[in-house]
Each structure stands twice: as structure tokens, then as C-alpha cells.
Amino acid sequence: MNCIRWQLDSRGRIRAWGPGAAAFFRLPAEQVLGKPCAEVVRGTDGFGRPLCGRCPVLREIKYGAYQASTALSCGGKRLRCQGFANGDIQVELKSESQRDSSEVLASLSWAVRKLTEEPERFFQTLQVFLAGLRKSLGMEAVELFLADPQERYLVLTAYDGVHREAFMEKPWFAWGEGYPGLVALGHQALVTHDLASDARYLRQKVKKLGYKTYVCYPLELPQGLIGVLNLASRDPQIDDEALLEQLSLMGPMLAASLYMVLTRLGERGLLSIAAALRQGHESQGLEAFLAQTTALSGASCVRLVLQDGRNLTQGRCEVPECPHVQQCPVWQGKVQGVKVGLEPCPHTAEGRPRYCLPLWSGGGVVGVQQFYFARTPQPPSQAVAPILWLERLGAEALWPHSEQAEKESPLLEIQTLGGLQVRRRGELLSPRAFGRRQALTLFKLLLAHRGQTLSREELCERLWPGEDPRETQRRLHVLMHGLRQALETDPTRPQIVLREGEGYRFAPQVRYFLDVERFEALLHEGDGLEGTAALERYREALALYKGDFLADEPYADWAELERSYLRERAVGALFRVAEMALSQHRPREAQEAYRRILTLDPWREEAYLRLLETLRQSGQEAEARNLFEQYRSRMERDGIEISREMAFQV
């Protein structure tokens, strides 16, 4: 079967049409370019119903996923349609039984790019990559263990698959212990098709579930081992030679990417610390160190006890200080914890889940860190190895100090949710302040790609597509001048939009407030809390969500991915608010949350179902019937079959 590939824009219209696609569909490029993909492909699901009109691939990518796939029938053949977000959307159609290295490598390429561009989304990116890898290789479970920088332990950092609880039975191994430790020690892959009888494998729950095939593969670099990748299946007939061939292709690239990102995280922390130390602000350096560690770990409270007796905290530390910290085995370099599957603390097994980790500097332990969690991470040991990598550079540069940095009012306050509004020193800037209308569009482009450097060529193509670059470069210079006049205190020494090489980046060197950053930070805090505390964080975050990201640019394809991602984050928070409200016997608040979800995503069937159930449980039968009629009308209008579960509720 020839390679069937084409390319879509963000609205699902065909932008490029490969020769394999032209041959399979018997349609030349000139007949399909610009048409909706669904109109050309006309795929059906397993029951013969039209599928492309409600394309699962396009929907998932629009909601912020970076890859998605679905089975469909097309041209009398059962196929798999897979899409990857890479600026535009790359689509490939292949036989459901066809497996080759291209799918794995494409997934890895996406993961490498995301890890490089957005290291702060380290865990999310790994999770998406492992899910794709597991499906591509036809396995039931996949695990990534990362080594600590001192090469003492291998700790489970990411997992995807079924039977999660069984694989969490032991989420860490010492060097030389169990399959991961033996692979780390011997630098050779281990493979078995008879896991139950292999004494080297230490998880009894996995054995009892009938797993047969297990592959443990080292992720190596010239300077050492960064981790191991494990694959598991209950099928004893798995072709391990094919698996090892795939792993040999992608393993070195994955190892190099993990090392690069973990090192980059440490370097980023070091830069913040070094900048504070150069200015004589040791306390700010230490605060930055703890803040970055806390953010990466997802802990609600971090305590750091240093050799000189200093005791420092970050986050909401309502838990009492540990009375045994001076006798803690962590001073000898051990990694321990409570209720997180690590080596158990010898002094207590009670209290909130926590890590107890050594703080290394210069080959010795200079402190003991305790990371307290409101909710157990998944996997429980998820952040252990990344924390140790993050800290390895910054710890050597720090001399702790207890003074607190003064808080200043932000120079800039930027609202993007619901449309752009900018305040400088509290004063709302009118569009006239930017000189030209496109100067505002330029600012929106930079905000949509915050943290990234956009080349002049890319900016010009976005602002004036298809026009002569020599002319548009001059216009860009004029717009940038107007933008800096509006935003900067001293336009000759820019501190907000920075020139980097041949491009520009929104990277303020002054205090500022950006609603989307605060929105995501509050959601992250809420995810780490329970009960009323979590509910308050979500309410505060959702109060910021006044509408879609840059809603005043509804047709800008460059804003669509970020817009969809933030909308999905808001929907997720609303679902959790509704769940917590119901648990606290506040059905009205839950109903409001579900209704708000339906204003953001009118096709979200789960919200219809949950709202319908809540209305009926509250005795609001008339409202429940009206809601079902609204749902039925919308589904019929869009040609979507009514859910049996919804119909059963009425």
C-alpha cells in the first residue's frame, strides 16, 4: 500500500495532496485543494455511518492534542487515519495492520520538538508520547524510568497502559535491582516471554495478571545512562526482534532529548539564581530555586533543611516540621517517601504523601528536601528524577539567605481571554497608543507564541501573506517601533519584546501580569489540592476566563491551537468544580458549571449527560426535558446520532 498522505489547515481544508493520496482516491490535487477533508475522504465507522463529518482526529487536535488517530473504512478497506499537529495538520492513511518505524519516529519527532520548545510541559509531553508509542507498537503497557544524576536509582517517571495499580507496585529500583537496575548495570536490553517464572522481575501483581512478554531497553548516551524504557504485553507471541529494531531506531534520539531537556531545566534555574546573586540578592536566588522545584514537582509544600540548620519553605506548608529530619537516612543520599511507593521513611508512615530527597552539591548532600502533596502524583514517583536533575546546577551556586524579595506592582497588565486589553502602570492603552492597527496584531502574534522566538520572515508571512519580503521587512520594522513606543518605558532599551538573532520574542524583563499565565498557574495549584482549597483555586482561575483566547481574532489560525488548549483547560476545571460542588451538596453550582461547559463546547455530550442527571436528581424534570430537546435538536441539525445513554435518562 503506497504512502497516502496529505496536509490540512487548522479548519480541516486540504492544503497539500500527496501522490499516494491522489492515486488512492483517484483525484488529482487540483480537484481537492481548498476543499474540506471530510468532503473528499468520506470515511465511515465500523457500522457504516459517516465518520468524517465529525472527524475525531481533527477534533482532538483542535482541542490541543498534538497527535490523534481513528479507525475508518474508505474505498472498501479498513484503514487507520492518523494526524499530527505541526503548524498545519499532517494526515496519513494506512492499513490497520500496517506497522512501521515511520509512525514511531513521527511521534518521537513531535515529542522531541515539544520537549525542546516547552520543557515546562515535560510530564504532559512524555505521557502523550508514551500513549502513542504503546499503540504504535501494539503493547499493553509502557514505562519510562529515569536515572538520577548520581546513578544510584531508577525512578518511574511516566506510564501509559492498563493495570496501572499493578505496575505501581514498585516504582523505583536501585542500580542492579530488578529488570531496570540490571539493564542499567549491564547496558543490554532484557527480553522475556515467560515473565511469571523470571525471578529477576520483582512485581508480583503484574505476574498474577498474566503478563508474558516484557522488554526493558536502556536509553544511553556517551556520558552514561539516562533511563530505561519498558514494554509489556500478555501476548507471549509478540515479535521481540521487531520491537528491538524499533527501539534501536528511536532510543538514541529519545535519550539525547531527555538529557537535553533535563539539563536545560537545570540551566534555566541556574540563570535565575545567577542573575539574583550578581545583584547581591541571595534570597531571591534561593526563592527562584525553590519556586522552580515546587512548580516542576506539583507539590503544595516544599521544605528544605540545610546543613547549617536553616529551614526554608515554599508553598502552603501547613504540615508540622518533621522531628526526625536530622536523623534522616536521606543525608546519606537515599531517596525515601511516604505513600508514594519509594523506600519507606523509617520514622513514620502517616500523613500526607511526600518525597524526602537529598540536595546534592559538589558530590555531597547539603540538605534534605520534603515535598508534600495534596494529591498523590501519577505515577506517584513521577517528579523524583526530574527534581534531582533540575537542582544539580543551581544547588552549587546558592548560599541560602532568609530575606524575602519585595513585591512590586506590575508595569504591564495584559488580558487575552475574551480579547486583548493592555494596561501600562494601571492605565488602559487604546488602539491608538500602538500607532497602527497591525502593531496590535503583531503583539497578539508574539503573545500567542510566548516563550518562542519568531523570525522576521515568519512574522511577515503571518502579517502579509504572499507579499514581497523586501517590502514587508520594512513594514515590520515600523510596526515594532510603534509597539515598543506603546509598551516600553525606554523604547531604545527594550525590556518587553526582545530581539533575538533574526527574530523577536515576548520575554519581559520587568514585572508583568498575563492572565493566561495566571489562569494556568491557578489551575495547576487547584490540581494539587482537594476540597474547598481546590475549589477556590478553580473559581479564581475561571473568573479570569472571560472568553476565548484572543477572541477578537476569531479567524487567526496562528491563535487556534492555544485557544483550543486553554478552552479545554477551562472545560476540565469546570467538570472538576461540578464534581466537588455535588460532593458538597451544592447542585446549583454544579448545574452552572455544566451549563458553562456547554457554552464553551456545545457538542460536549458528557456535560449534557451530567447536567441531565443533576437536574433529575434535583427534581427539575421540566428543565431536564427541555435540555434533552435542545440536545436532540442540535445533534439532528448536525447529523450526529443521539446517544443511547442520553435517551435512557429521559
Write the layout of secondary structure elements.
Elements lengths: L3 E5 L5 E4 L1 H7 L3 H4 L4 H5 L14 H7 L4 E8 L2 E10 L1 E8 L5 H17 L4 H16 L3 E7 L5 E9 L2 H4 L4 E3 L3 H9 L3 E3 L11 H5 L4 E9 L2 E10 L6 H39 L3 H16 L3 E6 L4 E5 L20 E3 L4 E2 L9 E8 L2 E9 L11 H14 L14 E4 L5 E4 L2 E2 L8 H12 L5 E2 H8 L5 H19 L9 E4 L2 E4 L5 E3 H13 L3 H14 L12 H27 L3 H14 L4 H13 L3 H17 L6 H6 L1
Parallel strand pairs: 14-15, 18-24
Antiparallel strand pairs: 1-2, 1-5, 3-4, 4-5, 6-7, 6-11, 7-8, 9-10, 10-11, 12-13, 12-17, 14-16, 16-17, 18-19, 19-20, 21-23, 22-23
Radius of gyration: 27 Å
Helix-strand category: alpha+beta
- The tally of strands reads 24
**Residue runs with pLDDT of under 50 for 5 or more positions:** 399-408
**End-to-end distance:** 47 Å
Biggest pleated sheet: 6 strands, antiparallel
Strand order of the largest sheet: 8-7-6-11-10-9
Mean pLDDT: 85
How many helical stretches? 22
Shape: globular
- Helical fraction equals 40-55%
Key terms:
650 residues; alpha+beta; 22 helices; 24 strands; globular
Task: Describe the fold and architecture.
Helix content is 44%, strand content 20%. The chain has 22 helices and 24 strands. Residues 399-408 have low confidence and may be disordered. A six-stranded antiparallel beta sheet has the order 8-7-6-11-10-9. A six-stranded mixed beta sheet has the order 13-12-17-16-14-15, with helices on one face. A five-stranded antiparallel beta sheet has the order 2-1-5-4-3, with helices on both faces. The radius of gyration is 27 Å and the shape is globular. Strand 18 (412-415) and strand 19 form a beta hairpin. The protein is of the alpha+beta class. Helix 5 packs antiparallel against helix 6, helix 5 (101-117) runs parallel beside helix 10 and helix 14 (456-463) crosses helix 15.
